[in-house]
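Continuing the batch. This is chain 6 of the set; chains 1 through 5 are on the previous pages. Same settings as before, nothing changed between runs. Recording input and output for traceability.
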Amino acid sequence: MHKETPLITLQPLLRQSGGGGTAEWLLFTYRLPSEPSTKRVLVWRRLRRLGAVSQPEGGHLLPLTPRTLEQLQWLQAEVGELGGEASLWQVDPVPPGRSEALQALFRQQLEEPYASVEAAVESILARLSAPLAHEDLLTCEEDYQTASRRYLALRAVDYFGCSQGAEARSALESCSAAIRAAAEGLYSPEPRGEDTP
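Output for chain 6:
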């Protein structure tokens, strides 16, 4: 009888530090009562905010970092408080090629959100190219701050350096410079002609 080799090997993650292992990934699984659905939505949103990738076999995967470990341990406790059960697993080294595929999946899930930051910046730049009133400039600055916050939230979960992130950052830097230039043009005093006696 032939025994099938699993794609990944799971080890229960103990709360004590040390003892290590060479794991690179964390797998979070949970169960909550079906009603009220707000509890499941809360946990799903938290996992999404962390950048977790849902696995077809079940559970949510994140790279093992001190931050993700701490956040998942907190979430595990919170699921218990919500009347559910959660498990946090350390995934031992995955087979060759699988780690690269997982990293590509993490990068891929950030491409569209980074593109939306770039689209917001393009919209701001288009508005800055037209003559501006004070209120228009304030709106552009507010939209720039919103896009910057969105970018920072994405960077916090960009574990493997999505190339679109660098493009979004460059767009934000250009936008910042354009806002400064527009503000200088709007608020600089008009040059006065020399008074002749």
